[in-house]
Design a protein that fits this description.
By secondary structure, the protein is mainly β. The chain has one domain. It contains no helices and eight strands. The strands form three sheets. The protein has a four-stranded antiparallel beta sheet, with no helix packed on it. Strands 5-8 form a two-stranded antiparallel sheet. A two-stranded antiparallel ribbon has the order 6-7. Strand 1 and strand 2 form a beta hairpin. The radius of gyration is 14 Å and the shape is globular. The two termini are about 30 Å apart. The mean pLDDT is about 85.
Amino acid sequence: MVYDPVGQRILMFGGYDGNYKNDVWQLSLGASPAWTLLSTQGTPPSPRHWVAGAFDPVGNRFILIGAIRAAPPSTTSGR
């Protein structure tokens, strides 16, 4: 997640619902905070986890830095 001070919002990449996601969500920080799924420009990165990111206020963009390409979670019992 990153904070966008210009847009007064929090941006989040990814998610997990049994499968890793490559969604981008925003949480508006106004009077009635709400999550909204955003459309991205260009080709989005593949689903991944352990993502780091930064917000570039000059370019008004969310930059992903590093990550591990998503693989199905381990189903090994006893862990």
